[in-house]
Amino acid sequence: MKKTLFTCLLLISVATSIAQDYFPTNSGLKQENNNYTAFTNATLYISPNKVIKKGTLLIQNGKVVESGKSVVIPDNTIVIDLNGNYIYPSFIDPYSSFGIPKTKKVKWENGPQYESKREGFYWNDHVMPENRAIDRFEYDRKKADELRKAGFGVINTHIMDGIARGTGILVTLNDRLNNSERIINDSSGQYFSFKKSEASRQSYPSSHMGAIALLKQMHYDAKWYADGHAKNKDLSLEALNTNKSLPSFIESGDKRKNINADDISDLFDLNYTIIGAGDEYEAIESIKATQSKYIIPINFPEPYDVSDPYAIKYLTIAEMRDWNQAPTNLRVLSKNNIEFALTTFKLKKVSEFDKNLKKAIKYGFDKTKALEALTVIPAAMLGQSDKVGTLKKGRYANFLIMSGELFDEETILYENWVQGTKNSINSLSKKDIRGTYTLTTDEKKFDISIAGNINKLKATVKVDTLIYDSKLSYKDDWVTISITDKETKDVYNSKALIEKNHSNFSGILILPDGTQTNFTALKKEEKKEEKKEKQKEEKNSHVESSTSNLSKCWLWLFRKSQKTNYFI
Amino acid sequence: MVKNGKIEKIGKNLASGNLLTIDATGKHLTTGIIDEHSHIAATSINEGGQNSSAEVTIEDVLDPEDINIYRNLAGGVTAIQILHGSANPIGGRSAIIKPRWGADAKGLLYKDAPKFIKFALGENVKQSNWQSYSRFPQTRMGVEQLYVNYFTRAKEYEVKKLSGKPYRYDLEMEVLVEILNKERFISCHSYVQSEINMLMKVAERFNFRINTFTHILEGYKVADKMREHGVGGSTFSDWWAYKYEVKDAIPHNASIMAAAGVTVAINSDDAEMSRRLNQEAAKSIKYGGMSEEEAWKMVTLNPAKLLHLDDKVGSIKVGKDADLVLWSDHPLSVYAIAEKTLIEGAVYFDIEKDKLQRAAIKKEKNKLIKLMRDDKDKGIKKKIPVKKQKKQFTCESL
Questions:
Q1: pLDDT in tens, A352-371
Q2: Cβ under 8 Å to A: B residues 379-398
């Protein structure tokens, strides 16, 4: 760890804009950068509920100096005119294991292990409140890049292993700085779960009810220890007591375990934030009754392949409803005024986050609530509202520059600034070029339609009704298309620049015979009615079940009960 | 006549007035069946990580969506003790529920029910049948010493607690103290007569009584001693020969224990058998010549007595809970089907409604299949459905 920190310092300190003032420099001249940067003419979301049209955001040394309508811009400020583009505070992921190496699974041995193998710690090896994420943390650039692309600027991380997991850290996703500057809080909270550690074979607890009892007894013992009654040294209980005032988080596992977590929280007045499982909508009344705060994953169930009529018989109505209704979870939680933050936890890939969140919005989740769940709410949960979550004066300069409203299908994320460091995701001049175009040469008229994900565009090229093979790329304002006639193998190569004020592109086309010719591809205007129709179609098609979860597992009725070996 | 969930009046030609009337011509109305020993509706059953797990409770892990709740209703069951398993000598605390299908976990719980805990003896607790040699006790003698040790410590714990001096709050000891103070009752998994005697003696030494011996397949050998101790027996009708320690079991067990004056119940310990406990009770008429009335009591009033709930449930009596079953035939007949099951006056199972709901679900499934087929989200790989083995718990499920 120390070594890494040292290397980081050596390599990065030159490029660092906010240099540590008392560190000597031997790799060049020592310099400081105290420049101001101003973003003007922005639709500026200072917080989810405070938006300023034609606003200015002024930053310096990684922090917001001023934000609002009339901001005095000092001399020597770098001014970036955003021309109506949007600025949002960037997202915070409050629950992850970012940068923490996965705990190694303990070797298998014959026979169960009943006793603890540690000395000087709690009697149960799955209880490790003395663990510190900061001791194992190694900043993960690759993952940071994925997260920034999804709009995140700050992530909270901890050692995701065991029933009591110790303290976590809150860290910005700033590649240019080192840990000494990017770590906002080196003990951001205490973390708990009902799951045993991978690192120990100790049998207890072998059940969920055992895990509940263990957590309770651990808290009773902590009090006993704090009052000075224990005869032995216990570093686990000492850590638990030391970190008592930190925010506490507990990973539940499912909707019913949320209730167990809340029971423990109430018993010891712990004010747990509960990491839910995404199935809260199925038991919303009891979830609401917990009056707890939640962190909710959005890993929606995948659909089943229903093409095999025999395989369908294995599908339960419960599974099918899960698939159908899970995307309503956020809407249901929000309608019931349950306070929650969102997380990338449980997603197979970070890139699914944007897609799934948009799906939830399509299923009725409010956009402003979504932004709150990604900014001010996690900031408050972590007790860091004075540093992150909004773009008020003095907060970290963590923000997104976007072409339009957040969570809109057509909006492009241009830049994700973290602590005043620019991370370009898409060029500011990048446009949504999806649509249909016509490209006319002397002999042929190509109909080109560009569709797909904004970062993964696909072109379909037709001459009359015949489809030609095509390849498309769009980078830095240049569109490159090559078209191949399947029959004659004739190839048309083209490269064209997007025009400034609309989406036509013009450039040079190389015809199959080698002749070069100038061309312009003209975008067809999409009729407004068509657009509306499309949106209508996309509107949610989920079945609002009239039956409650009362008959959720009904389909089991149709199946004979499984035969079990009876050991009575 | 049922009012506010209680039985208001019993008789002929009761003033009907504004009442909802159910025509039961040609049918049999009985009180609901009570299952003293079940492992349904829970997400875990055993905490075998220690030789005593009195600190855990099944109430924490109730699963209100277990379809077996509904199936039990269809079998006329209206109260169930969900017991911890038999992995260790001192098991976990029970949850006594009414199968209110559709309620949440807390809604299932029997309100203000007496407190119970599972104990276990025999092969399971000394881990004879799997390769585990490191947990005490490994012999039946050790089991006895373990009980004595725990109860002695519980006594010491209570003394310290009452002394006003600081003491370490211990979830496990708190529960054991309740047993010593006769505030919590033991339902003990048991087979072999020597062990049954042993546990009764340990209890007597600590001045309390064992409440129920469950399984108790050798109960017929020690029925007189059981009556003397005041313990009940909750057994199977004719289920035996599944392991060495049950080799002496006989189907006349229930009748013999009952004849000796022991309160006897027939239980299920199984999600399938609990749906036809009426038939299980009837078997004792064949084996041992029990009267119909006594046989029927073994799945109603007697388990209610064993659970200390006989003032509220277990029979049709004015003032008791209106937990009722309308049968198509004589309830001890194999042809009898529960047509309606009521808990505290509310219909939780209705065979006619069941048909409609099955049809509705079929329709909904078709609709969902269509939606799933038409799901055009191309980025997602669709899963192939696979057959799921639903785990059903028995005493030994780990």
A1: 999 999 999 999 999 999 99
A2: 379-390, 392, 394-396, 398
Q: Report the distance separating Cα A372 and Cα A399, nearest Å.
A: 14
Window B:293-352, CB contacts with A under 8 Å:
none
Which residues, other chains included, contact A43 with Cβ-Cβ below 8 Å and sequence gap of 6+? A51, A52, A53, A54, A55, A84, A85, A86, A87
B250 is a domain residue: yes
In terms of domains, do A455 and A365 share one?
no
- C-beta of residue A248 within 8 angstroms of C-beta of residue A192: yes
Domain that holds residue A488: 435-523
C-alpha dihedral over A202, A205, A211, A216, to 10 degrees?
-90
Q: Is B172 helix (H, G, I), strand (E, B) or coil?
A: helix
Asked if A45 contacts A86 with a C-beta cutoff of 8 angstroms, the reply is yes
SS3 state at B81: strand
Structural domain includes residue A299: yes
**B175-to-A94, A380, B36, B57, B115 alpha-carbon distances in Å:** 38, 40, 21, 10, 10
- Please provide the size of chain A in residues: 568
Over residues A498-525, the pLDDT tens digits come to 877 667 888 888 888 888 888 888 887 7
Tell me, what CATH number does A440's domain have? 2.40.128
Q: In Å, what is the CA distance from B77 to each residue of A373, A553, B137, B214, B253?
A: 45, 19, 37, 19, 23
Query: Taking CB atoms and an 8 Å cutoff, what residues of chain B touch A216?
Result: 55, 171
How many structural domains is chain B composed of? 1
Nearest of B245, B71, B395, B217 to residue A566 by alpha carbon: B395
- B123 in helix, strand or coil? coil
List the CATH number of the domain containing A357: 3.20.20.140
Can you say whether the dihedral through the CA atoms of A143, A146, A147, A148 is positive or negative? positive
Give me the percent of chain A exceeding a pLDDT of 70.
88
B218 by Cβ neighbours in 10 Å (0-12 / 13-18 / 19+) ranks as buried
Residue in B with minimal Cα distance to A565: B394
CB A135 within 8 A of CB A379: no
Helix (H) or strand (E) holding A39: strand A36-47
Cα–Cα distance, A226 to A224 (Å, whole number): 6
The ipTM is 0.95
Q: How confident is the model at residue B249 (pLDDT cuts 50, 70, 90)?
A: very high
- For residues A333 and A281, is the Cβ–Cβ distance under 8 A? yes
- Paired residues of A424 in beta bridges: A415
Tell me the three-class secondary structure of A511-558, residue by residue.
Answer: CCCCCEEEEEEEECCCCHHHHHHHHHHHCCCCCCCCCCHHHCCHHHHH
CA distance B5 to A387: 57
**Of B105, B57, B83, whose CA–CA distance to A258 is shortest?**
B105
Residues of the domain holding B281: 2-8+27-350
Residue A551: predicted pLDDT: 35
Domain for residue B357, yes or no?
A: no
> Does B166 reside within a domain?
yes
CATH code for position B344: 3.20.20.140
Do A208 and A304 fall into the same domain? Answer: yes
Report the domain count for chain A. 2
Whole-structure pTM value: 0.90
Assigned domain for B21 exists: no
Chain B residues with CB-CB distance to A312 below 8 A: 369, 385
Flag whether pLDDT at B157 surpasses 60: yes
Report yes or no: B243 at the A interface, CB cutoff 8 Å: yes
Averaged over A253-268, what is the pLDDT?
97
CB pairs under 8 A between A and B: 212
- State the Cα–Cα distance between residues A129 and A237, nearest whole angstrom: 7
How many angstroms separate the CA atoms of A479 and A473, rounded? Answer: 6
Chain B residue with minimal CA distance to A284? B104
Secondary structure of A53-105 in HEC code, one letter for each residue: EEEEEEEECCEEEEEECCCCCCCCEEEEECCCCEEEECEEEEEECCCCCCCCC
Radius of gyration of chain A (CA): 28
